[in-house]
Amino acid sequence: MSADKIKDGVSAYRCGEDRYYTVDTGGRKTIIGGTEGEYTAEAEDAAAVVLLTSKPDSSASLSGLLKKRADIDVYASAAGLRNIKEIVNSDVNEMLIKDGSAPGELNGIEFSVTPGLPWMDSVTAMYNGILFSGELFSGFDGSWESFDGYYKENLSVNIDFVRAALEKLKGKRADVICPSKGEVLTGEDVGEAFRRYEDLTRIVQKNERTAVILYASRYGYTREMAECAAGVLRQGFKTVLIDVYSETREYASAAAASADVLLVGTHTINRNAPVQIWDAVTSLDLVNKRRMPYLVFGSYGWAGDGIKLIHKTLSAMGMKAAAKPVEVLFKPDENDLGKLRRCLVDNILSNQEL
């Protein structure tokens, strides 16, 4: 594996998709980052290794290095130090990373604790105008489309953490970005990388709130309830009504992801909800949809197990039940629909927090 010189004393190594770096600070070599493979022989004389995350695909290389260099200093965040000992199954010479300049022996390396990129133990490092960014700004292969795609696939779920990291880093004046995956960014590409992340993480204020109603109906009874609910919610929400038997899984899942409030109506088949309902529910983003209000409803003929299972699952996923499920035995009459209307008015339309 050949080394690519970044600046005097700073080299990049590539192992498959992974990149790690060595920094020579006054004769003391430090490894920054890791790989799923192995470090080069040149890395074995390093005095320290900085783990930007303990993710196994970025830290597996440490296990082999420790067999040869058990005395090497391992720098990581508090969470990273905890994790790495369990990943390599041995003790290490722990060096705790905090915000600010590293201890004197690392000579000019400055750390920022930037959790959620994508693991909660992640950090970034600056040295001599070079930003060692970990998975942040990763994925550039000469195409900005690939760069954007890497963010969307790996980091977009943690948008708030990415925004916090950008806020910490934008005053650092990096002229080179060395990520854990993809090409090193230099020159105008550095500014473009920051600009693209600002755009990708910009919060767009919605002019109206969206309620999404997903339903599965065998005999039309749950559909009657869904249509009744839609009529009520249109008084305060842009309301999307989706029959999961008629629409694609991708459409139903994307609609659920856009919701401010989610209603799920289901019948019960073989003591369960139909797979189309499960597909939409289990596709939800458990980070950004945490605490989203929801309500489950449906018609049943025996015990309504499907309704109860969906309600319990959404609760276990961290979402917030607006009310207990609204259940109807077979065909809803006007009293049943009135109960559903009152539930929606009292717990959703009248809720000032929504």
UniProtKB/TrEMBL annotation:
InterPro entries: Flavodoxin/NO_synth, Flavoprotein-like_sf, NADH_oxidoreductase_modular, RibonucZ/Hydroxyglut_hydro. Coiled coil: none annotated. SUPFAM superfamilies: Flavoproteins (SSF52218), Metallo-hydrolase/oxidoreductase (SSF56281). PROSITE patterns: FLAVODOXIN_LIKE. Keywords: Electron transport, Transport. It comes from the Bacteria. Residues 211-345 form the Flavodoxin-like domain. Pfam families: Flavodoxin_1. GO terms for molecular function: FMN binding; oxidoreductase activity, acting on NAD(P)H. PANTHER family: DIFLAVIN FLAVOPROTEIN A 2-RELATED. This is FprA family A-type flavoprotein. It comes from Candidatus Ornithomonoglobus merdipullorum. The lineage of its organism: Bacteria, Bacillati, Bacillota, Clostridia, Candidatus Ornithomonoglobus.
